[in-house]
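Example for tutorial group B:
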């Protein structure tokens, strides 16, 4: 077995068809950013676009910019930019609100029309906000429903004829493990159960085929792989053929068929606009659109190929360089079973990650003991992966990570 070295990684960067995409981002010198799965970096065009929105459209255009600068269309315009990345059609996606609120919108409406079925299936390891939102909904609906949270490998068996709703995160935020979307969607559809996919860790990282897989409902955030900026609006997807039957319960005026008619009674918009609630966050949407544009002319197949190549390299180098240092790879090795991150566990994971960050290798830490490395294909280089593992090996060999400074806990990990 031949050893991997840095020149090998440099050659792969030279051969990388996506190597020029890195130039679409403002990345600080001297750091290797492996946290695009938490907060995507700044697109170079975002400051100018946001400045234009603030200074010209808001500053000069004032209220007329709702029409002249097409502010009202921003949620759908952003949605149509995302659509090809997730295998959706134009008119099936809108941006606005957070992922948490977007989940509430969909889940509340779907549960309100779920008849006698009382079981809600999610997952033990799901991102907490998803199950917090579902817990609140169960309470709101009079504690009629049971929220079941089996481990990932028992979810399919838990979906039965009593199930009113299934809510799953496609790629797990901790381990990077990925569900078989087509299979679970088909299972739910065969039983007439609405299923909401949370695509926070998939959109922009894993090519999706929502149309081909028969997905009806999905949500996901704008600030991770979509590079939309801190707190960027999230998206809601409703399949075109499911929009007519979808009956909103978060019935804000922007979901009305004629919001500017100011009618006394509610009448839902016939299109995906029925997934909106209130006035769109214009400045945030202006930044988000620049994030979505970083995918312009990029083939989603090339994104996936590089994502898998980067994570294969990362795992191979953990095996080659870090054996005997107490790391365990928790991300599944199979290419069809993982998203675009690699996660390691180590008893001293927190301090080790603080050391890496201090040396310019920015990943993040999740309890208990998990070191997460996001491998974003648009800007991460193969040599970055080499350098990160080399830093980690050096830390473990010298014990340089083991100081009170790196053990001290910060509020946000
Ligand atoms: C899977 C998943 N769902 C939801 C969220 C939270 O979304 P928001 O803060 O937009 O409500 C996150 C954030 O990391 C996440 O990873």
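The residue assignment follows.
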């Amino acid at each position: 077995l031949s050893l991997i070295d840095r020149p090998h990684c440099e050659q792969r960067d030279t051969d990388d068809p996506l190597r020029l995409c890195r130039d679409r981002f403002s990345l600080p010198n001297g750091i290797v950013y492996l946290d695009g799965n938490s907060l995507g970096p700044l697109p170079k065009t975002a400051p100018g676009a946001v400045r234009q929105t603030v200074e010209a459209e808001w500053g000069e255009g004032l209220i007329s910019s709702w029409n002249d600068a097409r502010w009202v269309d921003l949620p759908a315009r952003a949605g149509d930019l995302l659509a090809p990345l997730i295998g959706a059609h134009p008119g099936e996606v809108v941006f606005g609100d957070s992922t948490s609120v977007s989940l509430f919108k969909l889940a509340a409406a779907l549960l309100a029309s779920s008849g006698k079925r009382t079981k809600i299936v999610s997952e033990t390891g799901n991102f907490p906000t998803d199950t917090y939102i579902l817990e609140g909904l169960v309470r709101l609906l009079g504690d009629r429903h049971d929220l079941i949270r089996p481990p990932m490998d028992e979810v399919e068996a838990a979906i039965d004829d009593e199930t009113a709703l299934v809510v799953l995160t496609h790629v797990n935020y901790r381990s990077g493990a990925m569900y078989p979307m087509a299979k679970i969607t088909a299972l739910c559809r065969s039983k007439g159960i609405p299923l909401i996919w949370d695509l926070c860790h998939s959109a922009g990282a894993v090519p999706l085929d929502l149309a081909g897989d028969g997905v009806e409902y999905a949500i996901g955030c704008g600030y991770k792989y979509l590079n939309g900026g801190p707190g960027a609006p999230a998206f809601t997807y409703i399949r075109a053929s499911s929009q007519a039957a979808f009956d909103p319960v978060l019935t804000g005026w922007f979901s009305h068929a004629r919001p500017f008619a100011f009618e006394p009674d509610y009448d839902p918009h016939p299109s995906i606009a029925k997934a909106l609630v209130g006035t769109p966050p214009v400045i945030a949407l202006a930044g988000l659109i620049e994030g979505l544009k970083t995918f312009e002319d990029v083939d989603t197949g090339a994104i996936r190929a590089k994502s898998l190549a980067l994570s294969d390299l990362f795992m191979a180098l953990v095996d080659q360089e870090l054996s005997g240092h107490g790391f365990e790879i928790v991300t599944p090795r199979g290419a069809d079973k993982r998203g675009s991150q690699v996660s390691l566990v180590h008893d001293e994971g927190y301090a080790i990650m603080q050391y890496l960050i201090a040396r310019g290798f920015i990943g993040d830490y999740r309890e208990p003991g998990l070191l997460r490395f996001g491998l974003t294909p648009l800007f991460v280089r193969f040599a970055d992966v080499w350098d990160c593992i080399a830093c980690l090996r050096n830390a473990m060999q010298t014990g340089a990570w083991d100081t009170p400074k790196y053990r001290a806990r910060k509020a946000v990990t």
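The radius of gyration is 22 Å. Compare this with the pattern of hydrophobic and polar residues in the output above.
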